[in-house]
C-alpha cells in the first residue's frame, strides 16, 4: 500500500498497552493502574521473566492474576480462531509433540514471556530460548499481533473504547443544572423586583412569575433532551459492541464447522485412495492369474504325463 493511502488509515489512538508484571506476585499499585487504563485502551497483561518459574508455577500464577483482575479489570482477548492459527503454525515447526497453552483456550489468561540479550539464558538444568514456544509465549504473542490479524482486532477495540470514553467525558462536562439555575435565579430576582415595585400592578407581577415558571420548565426540558441523547448514544455503542461480539462468535462457529467438514472430507479422500489401491492390486493379481492360466494351456504336455493319461483312459 502506498504511503499516501496508508496515511488515510492512521489515527491518534493507542491500540495496545502491554502491561508487564513481575513473576510470582502482583502489586496493588499494578491493579490500581490497570483499573485506570482498561477503559481507555486494550490491555494485555504479560508476565515477565517467566523462565524463573516452572510450568506448574506459571499456570498457577496465571490463574491467580486472572482471579484478582476479573472483578475490576477487563483485559483484551484475542480471537480464538487467531489463537488456533498460531498454535497450528508452531505445531508444524515443532520437533516433537507440542501442546501450547496460549493464555488459556479463549485467551483470557496473562501471557508468560522471557527475554535475554543473546535470545537465550543458561541454567544448570539447561538452556531457555526466547524464541522457543515451549519455553516462552513471546513467539505466540508476536505472531498474534503481526501475522494472525490481532492488530485489526485491537484497532476495533481501541475505537470502541475511545467512543465510549468520549461519550462519558461529554456527559461529565455538561453543566447539569448550573446555567438553568442561574437563569431561574435571575428571573426570580426580576419577579421579586416587580413585586416590590409600587408602580406596577399586581397583575403584571403575576405575569412575570408565570413567565419565570415557563422559562424554568423550558430549560429543564432542554436539559432532559440533552441527557437522553447522551444516554441513547451510549446504548447505541453498547449495542454495536454486542453485535460485533455476536458476529465474531458466529464467524468462529462457521470456521469450526468448516474445519470439521474439511477434516471429514480428507478422511473420505484417504478412504477412497485406499480403495483405489486395493482395486489396482486386485486387478494386477487377476491379470497375473490370467497370464499363468494361458501359459498352462499353451504349454505342451511332457511324454510321461501323456502316457499316464493314456493308461488312465485305457483303464476306464
UniProtKB/TrEMBL annotation:
The transmembrane segments are 199-219
The Septin-type G domain covers 1-172
Q: Which domain of life is it from?
A: Eukaryota
Q: Which GO terms describe its molecular function?
A: GTP binding
Instruction: Name the keywords, alphabetized.
Output: GTP-binding, Membrane, Nucleotide-binding, Transmembrane, Transmembrane helix
Does this UniProt record's set of keywords contain Membrane?
yes
The cross-references to InterPro entries, in alphabetical order and at most eight, read: G_SEPTIN_dom, P-loop_NTPase
Q: Name one Pfam family in it.
A: Septin
Family, according to the entry, reads as follows: Belongs to the TRAFAC class TrmE-Era-EngA-EngB-Septin-like GTPase superfamily. Septin GTPase family.
For this entry, the protein name equals: Septin-type G domain-containing protein
Amino acid at each position: 500500500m502506498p504511503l499516501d493511502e496508508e496515511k488515510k488509515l492512521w489515527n491518534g489512538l493507542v491500540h495496545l498497552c502491554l502491561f508487564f508484571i513481575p513473576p510470582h506476585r502482583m502489586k496493588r499499585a499494578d491493579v490500581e493502574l490497570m483499573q485506570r487504563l482498561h477503559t481507555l485502551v486494550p490491555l494485555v497483561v504479560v508476565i515477565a521473566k517467566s523462565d524463573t518459574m516452572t510450568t506448574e508455577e506459571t499456570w498457577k500464577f496465571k490463574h491467580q492474576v486472572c482471579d484478582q483482575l476479573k472483578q475490576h479489570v477487563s483485559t483484551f482477548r484475542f480471537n480464538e480462531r487467531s489463537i488456533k492459527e498460531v498454535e497450528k503454525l508452531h505445531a508444524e515447526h515443532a520437533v516433537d509433540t507440542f501442546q501450547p497453552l496460549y493464555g488459556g483456550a479463549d485467551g483470557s489468561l496473562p501471557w508468560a514471556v522471557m527475554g535475554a540479550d543473546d535470545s537465550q539464558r543458561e541454567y544448570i538444568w539447561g538452556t531457555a530460548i526466547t524464541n522457543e514456544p515451549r519455553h516462552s509465549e513471546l513467539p505466540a504473542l508476536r505472531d498474534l499481533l503481526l501475522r494472525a490479524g490481532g492488530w485489526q482486532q485491537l484497532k476495533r477495540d481501541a475505537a470502541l473504547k475511545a467512543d465510549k470514553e468520549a461519550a462519558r467525558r461529554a456527559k461529565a462536562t455538561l453543566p447539569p443544572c448550573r446555567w438553568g439555575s442561574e437563569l431561574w435565579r435571575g428571573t426570580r430576582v426580576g419577579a421579586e423586583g416587580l413585586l416590590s415595585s409600587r408602580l406596577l400592578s399586581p397583575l403584571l407581577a403575576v405575569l412575570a412569575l408565570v413567565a419565570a415558571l415557563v422559562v424554568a420548565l423550558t430549560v429543564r426540558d432542554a436539559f432532559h433532551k440533552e441527557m437522553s441523547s447522551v444516554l441513547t448514544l451510549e446504548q447505541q455503542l453498547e449495542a454495536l459492541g454486542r453485535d460485533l461480539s455476536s458476529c465474531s462468535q458466529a464467524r468462529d462457529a462457521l470456521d469450526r464447522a468448516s474445519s470439521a467438514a474439511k477434516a471429514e472430507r480428507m478422511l473420505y479422500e484417504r478412504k477412497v485412495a485406499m480403495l483405489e489401491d486395493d482395486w489396482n492390486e486386485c486387478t494386477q493379481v487377476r491379470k497375473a492369474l490370467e497370464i499363468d492360466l494361458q501359459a498352462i494351456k499353451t504349454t505342451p504336455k511332457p511324454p510321461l504325463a501323456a502316457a499316464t493319461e493314456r493308461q488312465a483312459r485305457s483303464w476306464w
